[in-house]
Amino acid sequence: MKYSFRNDYSELCHPEILEALLKASKEQNSGYGLDVHTENAKNLIKEKLETEDCDIHFVTGGTQANLSVISYVLRPYEAVLACSTGHINVHETGAIEATGHKVYTSEGVDGKLTTQDIENALKIHADEHMVKIGMVYISQSTEIGTVYSYSELKALYDYCQQHQLYLFIDGARLSSGLAASDVKLNMFKDLCDVMYIGGTKIGLMSGEGIVIFNDQLKPYFRYHIKSKGALLAKGYSIGIQFERAFQDDLYFKMGQHENALASLLTEELTMLGIKMLSESSTNQIFPIFKREHVEKLKEIYDFELWEDLGEEIVIRFVTSWATTKEACMELIEDIKKIIN
Amino acid sequence: MKYSFRNDYSELCHPEILEALLKASKEQNSGYGLDVHTENAKNLIKEKLETEDCDIHFVTGGTQANLSVISYVLRPYEAVLACSTGHINVHETGAIEATGHKVYTSEGVDGKLTTQDIENALKIHADEHMVKIGMVYISQSTEIGTVYSYSELKALYDYCQQHQLYLFIDGARLSSGLAASDVKLNMFKDLCDVMYIGGTKIGLMSGEGIVIFNDQLKPYFRYHIKSKGALLAKGYSIGIQFERAFQDDLYFKMGQHENALASLLTEELTMLGIKMLSESSTNQIFPIFKREHVEKLKEIYDFELWEDLGEEIVIRFVTSWATTKEACMELIEDIKKIIN
Amino acid sequence: MKYSFRNDYSELCHPEILEALLKASKEQNSGYGLDVHTENAKNLIKEKLETEDCDIHFVTGGTQANLSVISYVLRPYEAVLACSTGHINVHETGAIEATGHKVYTSEGVDGKLTTQDIENALKIHADEHMVKIGMVYISQSTEIGTVYSYSELKALYDYCQQHQLYLFIDGARLSSGLAASDVKLNMFKDLCDVMYIGGTKIGLMSGEGIVIFNDQLKPYFRYHIKSKGALLAKGYSIGIQFERAFQDDLYFKMGQHENALASLLTEELTMLGIKMLSESSTNQIFPIFKREHVEKLKEIYDFELWEDLGEEIVIRFVTSWATTKEACMELIEDIKKIIN
Amino acid sequence: MKYSFRNDYSELCHPEILEALLKASKEQNSGYGLDVHTENAKNLIKEKLETEDCDIHFVTGGTQANLSVISYVLRPYEAVLACSTGHINVHETGAIEATGHKVYTSEGVDGKLTTQDIENALKIHADEHMVKIGMVYISQSTEIGTVYSYSELKALYDYCQQHQLYLFIDGARLSSGLAASDVKLNMFKDLCDVMYIGGTKIGLMSGEGIVIFNDQLKPYFRYHIKSKGALLAKGYSIGIQFERAFQDDLYFKMGQHENALASLLTEELTMLGIKMLSESSTNQIFPIFKREHVEKLKEIYDFELWEDLGEEIVIRFVTSWATTKEACMELIEDIKKIIN
């Protein structure tokens, strides 16, 4: 196998982040995230968010972040509305339902919810014989590589606020989303109630930073993550990583890097006449190959089969912070050989 | 602050383990624990367990391990029996109950359950108006520093098997327990249905290895930990650590080291006329000081206040894999100055 | 308001059943369903089921029956497959999810699942990143008035058994379903693992009889319903009702009666040129009226608005055990006046 | 068997209540508690509560009432504090834990919690490593036949309000409690946040009336009980019963009746030299008999064995609304014969 384009979590972590862990390895630090590094990391993130008025909590993974936030925000008879392609609906083994809440889904457009989707959901859920929709869940960037624009997010959040719905943004691939959209980190405080800043998929060994903007959602969240098994004894191990990631704009540069390489791949593939399932501006792209070409490509590269169209197959290439331009160009060369 | 004896998770991780992470940082690895390092780690652990016939799953923390195992094993109307000092009863913020199960407690003796405790619990829970006891939970070493002997564990497991109860051993501090008791790792396969081998509290950055011996408890456990947010995308980050910990007996040596230093402290303190709350042979000791001496000691060392006896206070010293003999001797010297 | 065709639970209970309650009101009976009447009721039902080899438990309502059965049968990481029109998906306020389980839905055909639906669901849920489908839920009669034929049920159950899926039949309107289909009560033992025999919607004051055929699902179910608040202290109050309902074929006659009246309405409406949304052979029918006619009809009758088609509206008429032929004919006469 | 003193739910329901059901049996009523009888019942209860400012919801049983209220009020990381003898701790098969919440228990005095118990519980639960105590649960009358006085309840509620704890009163045996204590129904609005008025154990076929005084706990409770399977389609069947029970002071008279007979038994037994386990002023009494006398008594009467003291056994006699003075005197005569 020459290289894996299967996902963006194949490489342990960025060397600078490993270096930071190394540096801190002789220290004694307080447990449960009450240490200096975690404090620093929070302050650095708040600077980029351009607000002091938020609570930040670090947990280890995306499903954990999602289930912790959603089960904290919702009352027991409430459901979360998500796009049918949403991670919580498809790829979390019923983790949200396991906390007691229905995930109600809407088709959306390009992997994104619209205010129309929310309106429809509210219309259907009219009385106590149906769950109450209490929260809207979206992802930036989305599970299929698209991004919400500022105006789209603004419209959603305005709608949510008018209808007493909380808006939660899953930022598992936020770094890539930031690099691909006009929504910058300092805008989120006005665009949602709670979000998480993904680390695992962008160069941290593990770690996601949950950011709570809405005052009503702040109290006792530490109790809640503890009860979900998400409060790490060595919380500083994540604090150290985020501390480094938010210095020198490393967090942002990694997303820019992977997006640039994904764009490069898209351009080159397009020049080869390969069509794409969707217009992605992030680090996930979805080219469509003939079945026989996919077979050959599988022998030398690792990637995900996305959708079987019969004679053709949609595959997914994901670039990461660690992917090199060389690996991408070699892939293109190999594809050229295969399809010609 | 000269040094913290507050707990055994103040230092990031053993240098050899960090080195192993460093070495693997250029690789691409498969996600979700389906990588080579995790495979190696499992094989190394199985060698020490002296059985191939078990399933091993790595998760990030102790509460996560406990809630995942217990909610997997129990049926919805069943409860787990624990010692009243048990970690799941006291210090997990209702994590087990949050998965839907009562923690029924018994006083126990020296932090340990006896067959008599189980018998009493079964007698009380006689019909469908009370929860059914489905599992017994114990810790090795216990939350108050004691250890079960082989014959004690054998008696418990025999009793459990005769009464259709699963036995689960929480090994958050297993390394210390192994060094302090006559129960070696190759014996556990005959002493319980499921256990976990603690990493976070003995020199790993994070990670606990759940070991399932009972065939009935094996199927679909990966589905379950995914639904609890416990299946790490970068599972190999834990695999690498356990792989190293189980080479050169590093896992065992760390426990021996911390126990030896705790024994040293016990000896020295005893010679100074300090009494201990309990006879501990592990890395947690519970000396009893006069209130005014505790006040002075708090100014130079960090440790936990365990129990307020009025004029005297029980405190807890915990040694770790990283604690040095020098730090211990300095502590003793400082105590001498304070109490004389 | 002349009469309500809104549902089949507007009238308290059949006079014969009330009479039975009256007769037993001077007795002392054992609590929690351990009384003579409950015993008799079970035996009478078993006679009709033509098997001794099943466990029967009485609970008060349909949602309670559904949530008790489903949460008992499924493991925590498992989901139930239902038709998108299924009661558990639409009208139970997330009751199944509140017990921790996803309801995965398929479109189905005429409110009924097919083996193709199950096959599709299994294909999608291929690994541990998605819930495991553990059970198939269907209703007889369905939520939109249709019924499964014997061969349809047989095909479903065969498929389920081949794929280690449990099949659960919601019989909230079973009496009507029995009268409308070729599936008789003595056939169910070979057609599903567990079902419930609805009482509330067919002339009992309240009560549903859960029947467990599959031996694996029998143990400790009483513990489970107690933990769900479904084990009535005065269980005999339901036992008495089922005891009477299963004497003199009362249970069956009530369904025949309501179906006959629904058929009468269908015939008469068809003769008036009114179209029906679906071909229903049970006690729920779905005529399509012009909007203005619905407005007028609403002034004298109570019924449910089912679907707004713009100029036309689908409404639902439900007949019950208590509905009279006179009331139906008067309705027809009134409709004639309105539409002419 | 001459008579059962085993419990107060052996007889179906008071003849007047059955009469009311009979009268209403020809009517059509709206479903889900939105009917006239339920409305009347609520108004009659509010008159006795002397407040309009409360929400009332009827459900079928005590465990259902308890689990619905507690899981509605608590946040996911919160626990309820109960007396160790509390019904939710002992006899509900983990129903509260099944909704995700720990039941933390305190010994109490005479089956009653004190402010000291609450203070102790709060002291222990000091940070996010332990559940947060969110609610206090007590029963009036208690599970062992005692009652809280007005001043006791006032002290508890004052303490709860000062410490942001909700107070919930389980009134499964409220009628008996009202007759035995100085706390009358019009006082409860100032003594708790939520309570339930028990019906099943005092002459209703089934039904408990949950009363919510605290405005914060009112919204969306109907959604919640629906999601717990507790919203009856034929809600009016309970409404009719409570409507009748709260006419002519029937609800109160039934409690007075059963208490009077229990007092009579106590007096007579005391005169025979029989000692009682506790001083009960309600319908449950706990006489202590010699083992051999219990054996003989068991042959002619049904009652519960409460506690085995070795040579002696504590048994429980419960009187109900249906118990007659004749039955009590006959019991006394039979006891005389046995013990002499």
From TrEMBL, chains A, B, C, D:
Superkingdom of origin organism: Bacteria
Do you know which InterPro entries this protein is assigned to?
Answer: ArAA_b-elim_lyase/Thr_aldolase, PyrdxlP-dep_Trfase, PyrdxlP-dep_Trfase_major, PyrdxlP-dep_Trfase_small
The signal sequence is none
Q: Name one GO biological process term.
A: amino acid metabolic process
Gene Ontology MF terms in the entry: lyase activity
Please give the family membership noted in the entry: Belongs to the threonine aldolase family.
Q: What is this protein called?
A: Amino acid lyase
